[in-house]
Structures are given as C-alpha cells and as structure tokens.
Amino acid sequence: MVTIQKAGPNHIDGIAWVCTASYWSTYADLLSTEYIERMIKEFYIPERLLKEVTKTSKSWNGWIVAVENGEVIGAGVGGMISENHGELFVLYTDPGRRKEGLGSMILDAVTKELIEYGAKEQWVNVTKGNQKGIPFYEAKGFQFIHEQDEYGIIEGENFKALRYHRFLL
C-alpha cells in the first residue's frame, strides 16, 4: 500500500535516489550530461536534502514522499512564492512506476498544503520538450504562460523551461 506523507530524515536516501533516477530518465535526451550532473549535485545530495526535510516554512513546505513497503517511490515539494501564489518546485516518481497515480497523489498533497497557506494560484516550470511532464500538468489544468531560460544554465547552454499556471479553487 502506498502512503503519502511528510518526509523525514529516514527518507533522504530514497528522495535522492528517486529524484536522481527520474531526472536521468526524464532529461537524458533533452539536456546535456554536464547540466544533469550539475543539477543533481546541487539539489539531490543527502546533505542538502537533510536540511530540506527538517526545514518547513511558507516558502518551503517540506518534502512530501510516496512510500511503499518502506521505500520512497515518489517525492515532491512546493512553497509559496507570493501571498497568493504557490509553486510546485519538484515532482518525481520512480521511473518504473509511472502511470500509477503517484504523481497525482503527491501533487494533490503539495497543492493542499499550498491552499492551507493561502494559495489561489499555482505555478510550475517544465523543461521544454519534456513529454512526460507537459501532458501530466496540462491534464491537471495547468496552462502554458511563457518560455524562459532553464534554471542554472551557464554560458553556451540554451535550455528552456516552460512556465505553467493554474487557478486553485
């Protein structure tokens, strides 16, 4: 049975694994190896994740995990980016567990927290060409707003992110 819960220090290795595996699975054909390795090293190392699972505020709601038989099979996190606007920062599932509803369950949990903090709207960035993420977010009511540079690009990189938005009830 899958449970959706707040992550704790015991989930760090699982979050790191699921985010790294899903990042490679999603972006290997869209982004350079150098970029992928740089982002994984910045965001999905245990030292950073330990700080993030113990930190909770309006701007960082803390990691939500999908757990089955003690194993993390999905992870996501969001926060408030202004008084009425929330953002989904990260949402990944075990690449072998796609299309099982895990992403929907995690998105719902993150969104519920954002609504509790006063969010009336929700934002997400999706890498241009990400045909795993784009249909998922569009099916959830997110609408494309504009294209922008991908986070953390360096000179010589031209990766783009698509900014999506939806209104919350």
Automatic annotation (TrEMBL):
Pfam families: Acetyltransf_1. Residues 2-169 form the N-acetyltransferase domain. InterPro entries: Acyl_CoA_acyltransferase, GNAT_dom. CDD domains: NAT_SF (cd04301). GO terms for molecular function: acyltransferase activity, transferring groups other than amino-acyl groups. Gene3D superfamilies: 3.40.630.30. It comes from the Bacteria. The keyword Signal does not apply. Keywords: Transferase. This is GNAT family N-acetyltransferase. It comes from Oceanobacillus zhaokaii.
